[in-house]
Amino acid sequence: MPEKMRAVVKTKAAPGAELIEVDVPTIDPDQVLVKVKATSICGTDVHIYEWDKWAQSRIHVPQTLGHEFAGEIVEVGSQVTKLKIGDYISAETHIPCNDCIQCLTGQQHICGNLKILGVDCNGCFAEYAAIPEIVAWKNDTSIPPEFATVQEPLGNAVYCTTVEPVLGKSVLIFGDGPTGLFAAGVARVAGAALIMIVGRHPVRLEIAKKMGADILINGHSDDVEAIVRTETGGVGVDVVLDMAGTQVAIDQGFRLVRKGGRVSAFGVAAGPVQLDLNNGVVFKGVTIYGINGRLMYDTWFKVANLLKYKRLDISPIVTHTLLLEEFEKGFSLMMTRPKISGKVVMFPEQ
After folding, report:
1. Domain edges within the chain
2. Mind telling me which PROSITE patterns this protein's record contains (predicted)?
3. Would residue 44 show up in a list of annotated catalytic residues for this protein?
4. With the CA atoms of 154, 157, 159 and 163 taken in that order, what torsion angle do they form, in degrees rounded to the nearest 10?
5. Tens digits of per-residue pLDDT, 86-111?
């Protein structure tokens, strides 16, 4: 086992990050050491890289970035009982305490003392990563690393889309980021009758079409509400999936969901938003679900089976593969406007 490794580290409280040599992590008794095969960039990583207000309030430097990965276990802690050297894993990034009321009532994903990999502790943009056994997920070896690494965000889409059945229903997705694109594919394999997506970036809207979206709506240039009302005969949609979190998306979503419909709120707003509670929710009898993370581990079983049995092809969303040393290019692709990338996957080794 080497003593040193390369890692993408937030070395100072400022924009950017550095690829530097650091010590290979020493694992705790309840952890495993993973040799990272692939790791992917998330919007949260971009927030940290750009060093926005949220990152400034949450991140303590120095810290290794990243929370999405696939890799092979090379060492296990003395208290680890369910994993062994050689296991091919990814990880649920919400690390629960297993002691609070949420954890004890089957809601580990919203643990009251939640820690997040790569946010509250060192992450996986590195050659090796230390992962608690409690969040390690054994992958089927048939799932390639570039797909296994994105199961965490795919799980967001699965939970958000299927928290209630969408079979035979009309679905409207706000947001053409990777999770919104995943949601289009999930809605298709889950049997949605009509899938519409509102986005801002032509490249990503074309990906949405490949994933199964029927109607592509450009939020910049199209009349969103007119199109949706025409497609639904003026009734509105059965299901709204908010993957954007903007005031505009929230306003339009609650106007366009039909009476008795469902809204899944996954998008994270930059600050407080307003909601027409009377007309958007109460008088319509709308059901709202707040979606945070993935159900542990119900969602993971669904995600793994969709990939293992090839029911969902996510290859259109994995648009770029790079070496870890090209991380700056990866972040540049993620930050380019208009958006030209889906998921950017990085490999520590060629």
Report:
1. 4-150+317-347, 156-290
2. ADH_ZINC (PS00059)
3. yes
4. -150
5. 999 999 999 999 999 999 999 999 99
Q: Which fold has domain 4-150+317-347?
A: Quinone Oxidoreductase; Chain A, domain 1 (3.90.180)
**How far apart are alpha carbons 225 and 229 in whole angstroms?**
6
Tokens of 215: 């109607």
Considering 44, 64, 149, 319, which one is annotated as catalytic? 44
Asked if the domains 4-150+317-347 and 156-290 are classified in one and the same CATH topology, the answer is no
Across the chain, mean pLDDT equals 97
Round the CA-based radius of gyration of the chain to a whole number and report it. 20
| Cβ-count burial 283-308 (b if 16+ within 10 Å, e if not) | ebebeeeebebbbbbebbebbbebbe
Contacts (Cβ under 8 Å, ≥6 apart) of 219: 198, 199, 200, 248, 249
Contacts of 301 (CB under 8 A, 6+ apart): none
Catalytic residue among 47, 67, 94, 320: 47
pTM across the whole model: 0.97
Q: How many residues are present in the chain?
A: 350
Provide the token pair at 304.
């793994």
Q: Are 217 and 172 contacting, i.e. CB atoms less than 8 angstroms apart? A: no
107, with CB counted inside 10 A (0-12, 13-18, 19+), is middle
Q: What's the CA gap between 231 and 198, in Å, rounded?
A: 14
Structural domain 156-290, CATH architecture: 3-Layer(aba) Sandwich (3.40)
DSSP 163-231: SS--TT-EEEEE--SHHHHHHHHHHHHTT-SEEEEEES-HHHHHHHHHHT-SEEEETTTS-HHHHHHHH
Pull the structure tokens for residue 149.
Answer: 């690494």
Is the pLDDT reported for residue 22 higher than 90?
yes
User: Does residue 350 have a pLDDT over 80?
Assistant: no
201 among known catalytic residues = no
The answer to whether 165 and 174 are in contact (CB under 8 A) is no
Cα dihedral across residues 334, 340, 343, 345: positive or negative: negative
